Amino acid sequence: MDKETIITIDNVWFRYADDAEDWALQDIHLDVYSGEWLAITGHNGSGKSTLAKCLNGLLMPEKGEIKVRDNAITDANALWEIRRLVGMVFQNPDNQFVGTTVRDDVAFGMENHGIERGDMLKRLEASLKAVDMQEFAEREPHRLSGGQKQRVAIAGIIALEPAIVILDEATSMLDPRGKKDVLDVMRRLNEEKGITVISITHDLEEASSADRMVVMDRGKVVREGQPSHIFMEPEGLVELGLDLPFTVKLRQALKEHGHIQLSDKAFTQKELVDELWTLSSKI
Amino acid sequence: MNIIIGQYVPGQSVIHRMDPRSKLIAVFAFVIIVFIANSWLSYAVLAAVTCAAILLSQVQLRFIYRGLRPILFVIILTFLLNAFFTRSGHELFGYGWFQLTTGGLRQAALISIRLLMIVISTTLLTLTTTPIDITDGLESLLGPLKKIRFPVHEFALMMSISLRFIPTLMEETEKIMKAQAARGVEFSSGPLLQRIKAILPLLIPLFISAFRRAEDLAMAMEARGYRGDEGRTKLRVFHWGLRDTSLLILIFLLIPVLWLLRS
Ligand SMILES: Nc1ncnc2c1ncn2[C@@H]1O[C@H](COP(=O)(O)OP(=O)(O)OP(=O)(O)O)[C@@H](O)[C@H]1O
Ligand SMILES: [Mg+2]
């Protein structure tokens, strides 16, 4: 993967009140690369959502600089272009559905950006298709499942042809099926359209399949790197309030148990299973 | 749960397919025109127009009755008040200060019919037009008011968001009611005061959640580039056709006709 930077976050500080003692974000340095899937994780209140809202100018950092494709978020003229480039899916499927029907909701963002109606209709159809919701165009939100509503939210965003989509715990209120559907759609968009995905999640299984992972703690970035590297040193992660993925826990338990010699490379479920069964066949 | 907002009855009639703006103007004009009529003959014309509209809309009469029901009491009350307190013509029945005259009866009948026609025409509008179309139609008709800084767009947006959230909030109310009922709160029986008290623990969580929703929604709207009316395009468009122009001509032709038929 080429490492073209799409978002630069430089020395960013943020607090919710001007006189607050504690900062919600402290000295954040982070680059996001074009086309990558970046997972951000951390305990409740560690500042993940705050950081996400800074990336499209919903919140303005007190110090530091954030640039999206060379547009500074402090530049009022660039703000609307930044909001088009950086789409955001929030946690509660109901509280971000604006339209009275699926069509109206997908069109909402396009209406805001003044996209001409003929073009709007074409994009509407294409984006509903991209999230597998064509048959539901006329449905009202109360007749959709949570996962379907989140996919409609994604359709509304990709209709604006964004470069980055931020999922702020977008699957945490969904059942496993809805969650899988939403993530599958995002993965497809990531691969086919090269949309950069920033996924904020408490689910470390999901985070472990990301290209890169960031762990936050009390407003700071405390770990950053490939998930396999981060989980190779699970010590300390539990103290940061994270629940380890099953494979990592299992490997730790097997190691503590002794006898079994495991390499440090097995990381995904498949790798671990492979290693375990080849291990026993060697005995 | 299947919630129908408003009274809209889906259909494919001419009236259903008309531009909401022409229907809004027509009903508004009709409600005023009704007051021109004051003779039996002019009333007959209005009644014929109303009946024709009902027939064209292909809406079943029971739906119209359902729309009338809440206002029926008012109509009957108006009838009685007019019948007993208007004294003209000759007396039909008298008992002390209590008198029924032919003039009173006539006045009562005319006024109730007038009210009835106003209610039927507005009901017909809501039966054949979705609430969102009515909202959009109003936004478009009131558009010129934007020049005097009247927040037309904001009101329309407010309306459409309310329409969108009514089912959500109703579902939520039901959920909270069940949760409270599981803890032994009685909503449907017991003394009135106690029932009113039971509503409070229902309203408070509902309000708190509505505020949270409002905050989230505002954030989501801004994230999707909402910045008011300026530079906005619209997905929903209206189609003004021949039938819309004809409807308006018809309605305005009623004015001279009724004027001639006045007594
Ligand atoms: N609107 C607000 N006003 C004041 N303080 C806030 C506000 N939103 C968040 N905070 C505070 O800022 C800090 C970071 O919150 P943030 O929502 O970014 O955390 P998070 O990592 O997204 O948590 P979660 O996993 O619960 O979503 C927390 O201490 C929180 O209490
Ligand atoms: Mg959060």
Automatic annotation (TrEMBL), chain A:
CDD domains: ABC_cobalt_CbiO_domain1 (cd03225). Coiled coil: none annotated. SUPFAM superfamilies: P-loop containing nucleoside triphosphate hydrolases. GO terms for molecular function: ATP binding; ATP hydrolysis activity; ATPase-coupled transmembrane transporter activity; cobalt ion transmembrane transporter activity. It comes from the Bacteria. Keywords: ATP-binding, Cell membrane, Membrane, Nucleotide-binding, Translocase, Transport. It is found in: Cell membrane. It is a peripheral membrane protein. Its main location: membrane. One of its GO terms (cellular component) is ATP-binding cassette (ABC) transporter complex. Residues 7-243 form the ABC transporter domain. Belongs to the ABC transporter superfamily. This is Energy-coupling factor transporter ATP-binding protein EcfA1. It comes from Pullulanibacillus camelliae.
From TrEMBL, chain B:
InterPro entries: ABC/ECF_trnsptr_transmembrane, EcfT. The keyword Protein biosynthesis does not apply. Keywords: Cell membrane, Membrane, Transmembrane, Transmembrane helix, Transport. This is Energy-coupling factor transporter transmembrane protein EcfT. The keyword Transport applies. Forms a stable energy-coupling factor (ECF) transporter complex composed of 2 membrane-embedded substrate-binding proteins (S component), 2 ATP-binding proteins (A component) and 2 transmembrane proteins (T component). GO terms for cellular component: plasma membrane. It is found in: Cell membrane. One of its GO terms (molecular function) is transmembrane transporter activity. The chain crosses the membrane at residues 24-56, 68-85, 105-127, 192-211, 242-261. Belongs to the energy-coupling factor EcfT family. Transmembrane (T) component of an energy-coupling factor (ECF) ABC-transporter complex. Unlike classic ABC transporters this ECF transporter provides the energy necessary to transport a number of different substrates. It is a multi-pass membrane protein.
